[in-house]
Amino acid sequence: MEQPRFAPIVQFGTSRFLQAHVDLFVSQALEQGAAIGKIAVVQTTDSPGSTARIKALASGDPYPVRIQGLQEGLPVDILCWSSSVQQAVHAASQWSLLRQAFVRDIQVVISNTGDQGYCLDDADNAHLLASDARAPISFPAKLLVLLHGRWQANPDEPVSLFPCELVARNGDILRNIVVELAVAWRLDEAFCDYLRGQCRWANSLVDRIVSQALEPVGAVAEPYALWAIEQQPGLTLPCTHPAIVITDDLDHHERLKLFILNAGHTYLAERWLLDKRDADETVYQAMNATALRKDLEAMWREEVLPVFAALGQMSSAQAYLETVRDRFLNPFLNHRIADIAGNHSMKKLRRMQPIVELAGQHLADLAQPKLKAALASDC
């Protein structure tokens, strides 16, 4: 008996972020006839939380996503139901099924595998290409085995891959890791050419605060959502949606998020540490502290926006800043500054130093006292 068809979109990861971001986009697009099909979710870990989510998702029943926050200064509190997930499988126990589906049915791959998602495992090797082999441990090795099987069966059928991990140039990086692994496994050069030249590895940026999981599956998220995807020929999108932006300048979207939203969070964390503010203070509370709000607004206005102006991007920066104010003033979101303050020194270098460096290149007279003081402090 022929196996039932798999959904055309396979998703590695069960996170609440994906449930309220990509999965919800596809669900809403399906209602408009604007998606290529439904999603098969793959559990790649053995964590109890992931197992419970996979069990709930496997039913195919719609799950809730509550959208709470501000939009253009007005409160939003709506309940959506996402019905994009058709199947849910466990990679380790259903690997053979996934390999068969990847050869036959899959058009798009989506991933959000966490901070260690691109790490390799020494236990993975070329013997795992055998038809009866276990599933590889690492995500890149799983992809390599699946893509190799697809190439053997359908060498003219590439796949579009959309990594959603928060890594700059995530598509390029994941592609290079998979190609280097193929070389290390001494696989056919024609297969390596297939990986490099025919498969479409999309660089993208995801942005949405998903503040809470709902049990057994579902999430609470803010109204703002963005999936910025770098344009490239031959890319198959999972769907079209107002929150999906296809762009020739992904760096611009990354700068907006890094310099305005992320640097704003890090400035609040810097002041939280320096001023020894309340241990449980939230971003919402900080934004309602008059003096602190004034200082943050001054940093954005006097030290960050002039950099975007020098790049010819002032209007988009001002528009994005308006959305960030709404997000910081979200009364539903319990976003503790103590959580933002983790790895603070590293975050300052990543989020603030590039603003100062760009100002040095384009605006030599821009003082940037708040940014420079934060970079110089021992917090």
Automatic annotation (TrEMBL):
Gene3D superfamilies: N-(1-d-carboxylethyl)-l-norvaline Dehydrogenase, domain 2, NAD(P)-binding Rossmann-like Domain. Residues 249-353 form the Mannitol dehydrogenase C-terminal domain. Its EC number is 1.1.1.58. It holds the Pfam family Mannitol_dh_C. Transmembrane segments: none annotated. It is an enzyme of class 1 (oxidoreductase). Residues 9-232 form the Mannitol dehydrogenase N-terminal domain. One of its GO terms (molecular function) is tagaturonate reductase activity. InterPro entries: 6-PGluconate_DH-like_C_sf, 6PGD_dom2, Mannitol_DH_C, Mannitol_DH_N, NAD(P)-bd_dom_sf. Keywords: NAD, Oxidoreductase. It comes from the Bacteria. This is Altronate oxidoreductase. The gene is uxaB.
